[in-house]
Amino acid sequence: MSASHAETVTFSDLSRNPRAVAERATRLGRVRVTHRDAPDFYLTAADREDQRDRTLATASRLFLALLKHDPTARTLAIAMPEVFPWVRHLATDEVRDFTFELVEALSDAAELDLDDRAEEVIVGWRATARVKANPSEYAAARKPTSGDFGPVEVSA
Q1: The organism sits in which domain of life (predicted)?
Q2: Does 34 share its domain with 58?
Q3: What is the pTM of this model?
Q4: What are the backbone angles phi and psi of residue 149, rounded to the nearest 5°?
Q5: CA-to-CA distance for 79 and 111, rounded, in angstroms?
Q6: Is residue 2 part of a domain?
Q7: Contact (CB, 8 A) for 98 and 54
Q8: Where are the beta strands (DSSP E) in the chain?
Q9: Residue 118 belongs to what domain range?
Q10: 56 and 29: one domain?
Q11: What is the C-alpha separation between 133 and 155, in angstroms, rounded?
Q12: Are 63 and 103 in contact (CB under 8 A)?
């Protein structure tokens, strides 16, 4: 369920009248709480969130089962251009690799609560498609490099 303007309350509204906001969240399933000095968040009915978790787990298991019975991921790979039109810039084996990585990331989201991993996979492959879509950028990216590019800082 996406939040529309009518399904948004301010943090001040929540502070002043928590009962009314909670009743609204129960009725609508969730409300978006905006906060001037912090990121927005959702106030969600627990049963609705539990159902969302079960739905994601079911979809994830279904995709994993399809991959188990179709090691080429042909069925899912056929659907990828409809969901992600930019995959047309990827090679066939890259679309397959993207499909496998995405299904694994969805499984991690469903089973391990690692929600950001699926977005990381999509963003990474979209960046690859973006580079490959621009012939001059792709040619530059494929040129060999040499020399020392200096120290690299790794953040934990």
Answers
A1: Bacteria
A2: no
A3: 0.71
A4: -95, 10
A5: 24
A6: no
A7: no
A8: 8-10, 30-34, 41-44
A9: 48-134
A10: no
A11: 31
A12: yes
